[in-house]
Design brief:
By secondary structure, the chain is mainly beta. The protein contains 1 helix and 2 strands. The chain has one helix spanning 48-53, and strands at residues 19-24, 31-35. It has a two-stranded antiparallel ribbon with strand order 1-2. Strand 1 and strand 2 (31-35) form a beta hairpin. It is extended and about 50 Å long. The model has no long low-confidence stretch (mean pLDDT 81). The structure holds zinc ion (ZN). Zinc ion binds at residues 25, 27-28, 30, 46-47, 49-50.
C-alpha cells in the first residue's frame, strides 16, 4: 500500500546521474564528456568553468 519508489527512504541525498557523451563547450570549445543533465540539442552547452562563469552568483531578479 505504501509501496512507492523508495524515494523517501533515508538515503540522504540522491545520486547525481551523469550523462555521458561528447560535446564541446559553446564558450571556450573545451571537450565535455559528461554532464549532470541531459543537454537540449538546440541549446548551447557549457563546460563547468563557463557554466559557473555565465551564472552570476547572485541574482536580484525577485
Ligand atoms: Zn567552457
Amino acid at each position: 500500500m505504501f509501496n512507492r519508489d523508495n524515494n523517501s527512504r533515508g538515503g540522504g541525498f540522491a545520486p547525481r546521474q551523469m550523462v555521458k557523451g561528447n560535446w564541446k563547450c559553446s564558450d571556450c570549445g573545451k571537450e565535455i564528456t559528461e554532464l549532470p543533465f541531459e543537454p537540449a540539442p538546440d541549446r548551447p552547452i557549457y563546460c563547468r568553468d563557463c557554466w559557473s562563469k555565465n551564472r552570476p552568483p547572485r541574482q536580484n531578479r525577485y
